[in-house]
Amino acid sequence: MHTAKDSSATFSGRQQLHTSLASLPAAKLFFKRLLLGSLVGIGAVSIAACTSTSTTTTTTTTPTIQPAYNTQRVGGNDLLLSPAAAYGQNRNRAFAYTVSDTSGGAAANTATATAAPDNTNTAAGGDVGLDVATVATENPPASASTSTTAAATDAAVQANAQPNSQLAQQCRAGNGQSCATLAQQTLAEYDRSGNVATLKSAIMLATSACAYDRSACILKGDLFTRAYQDKVDIDTFLPGHYVREEITSAYSLATEAKDLTVAANAYFKLGQTNLTFKRLPQAKSNFEMSCKVGGSSYCLRAGDLWQEQKNTANALASYNQGCTLGEASSCIKAGDIYYKQGSASKGNASYQKSCDLDNAAGCVTLGLRYTKAGANSKAQQLFDKGCTLGNGESCAMNGRIKVHAGNMSDASSNFKQGCALGDSVACELYGETSLAQGDANSAKSALTTSCEAGNAQACYTLGLMQERNAAQQSFNKACNLGQKQACNSLAASYATASTEAVQAYQKSCELGDGTACLNWGMSLAESRQNEQALTALTKACDLKEPAACERLGLLYSQAKRSADALKANRQACTLNAAGSCVQLAVAYGTGNGVTKSTAQSLTHLRKACKLGAAGACALTK
Description:
By secondary structure, this protein is mainly α. It is 64% helix and 5% strand. Strands 1-4-5 form a three-stranded antiparallel β-sheet, with no helix packed on it. A hairpin with an 8-residue loop joins β4 and β5.
């Protein structure tokens, strides 16, 4: 029994059979044509009309002209030999020959098959083999790798006849799309039931659809691919057939469809098939054709498949082909490969091509490369274009350049623009700069957007600005995202605020417990006792509770008490509170309460980055 996999031994056996039968003078020419035309999917057969067997056969002899086969490879696939493109006046005539299946031994049945010019058929009893006289069409398939008897095809159609009588009639009448629709419905039934016989019926219907309409050959290839993936033994209903050959044959036929979209898809699937079976040169040729026929997106897809196979050379070739054809994402991926190979100049050229194609990601990627190289002027031009194209990261990176140039105030407008375009880091930075400027409403709005996008530092800072219930949600999210101080603040937020508890916190705070002072201050703030809350939080900060210092800095910033906010943030940053380090950076960058110093601003941003603030990292890395 043959399982659903390729067998190289099969080719060797067929070559021996070819040699032995070709030595018969009467059979030689006919057999070569038959074998070459059906190299995919034919079992061990003998030509009954040309051998001295005791089997009784009937040969149809009208007409007797045989199709010529050329050796042009279809889509770079040497498994198949394409038929000659033209048959002259005989193009639509049926050619008849008789075959007998010898796979069952001496008792094997024989049958007469009438084939369309492009078809080769095997008849194995009453269940397998196709009377293609019923499917000879104006554009017959180039190679009939799968054959079914008319009875088998009718059985498949009949299984769908009751609920789909009109489709069944149309399919019998030669409408390929109707056969394809029935095949798809039958496949859906197979998905539900898992009954292999149902998959068989779907394949038979798809085979008829393919014979009528080459665009439907895609479906036939898909169904055989499904059989391969599900490890279905196709030999149980197609003796002597091999799944790789069936898949390849079907997709190759589909490449000859008049619809270029279908042809491009067929070339691509042919490439996937050859890639699966490790036929890399053929796969490369198939993918190149899919790109030429279907457009640059196929180059990108092919490049991604080669990347998955860790075949960098072919991936780069596909990406470059797509880039040349105007696929901006292919340019970026080609640039990435060039950089990994150490070719910065080629990488930059690829990124520039992507940006020239108005791809914002290409602009920001090249801008970041220039930024690392210290070429800020070139980087800013790229970020300007990326921001104009709607890339929020580009806007934020423009702000980064201004921060490094000592212009923190103007950078805030870039962060605002990037935030409006949905960049979470830009929103975090806009929230932090707004907070430092005492604009609590803008800060809370921006931080909320950033937090919703999964920015841990934004969630934590937002929680510091909120009342208990909302703060707990923000702290919990920040904690789950890995912000350690948020976890501590979350735990502290669950402390009871009963009168007795507040009195206990106060007593413990007076005895020098910093955590108690923090809980006391939070409880007082919750009950709107702001002045007493400031006193408790100040003591907690002095006792080196970073969360208390951060809260103090936030409260003082909102009250526009710059000097007090600066002191609290300095203490908090010393205690490794990332948000307060960012606040110090903004203060030094704008000269708010301190002497303006770009160096000090960047120093505090680097520390905030080490402590996990994504926005700070974006401004320093």
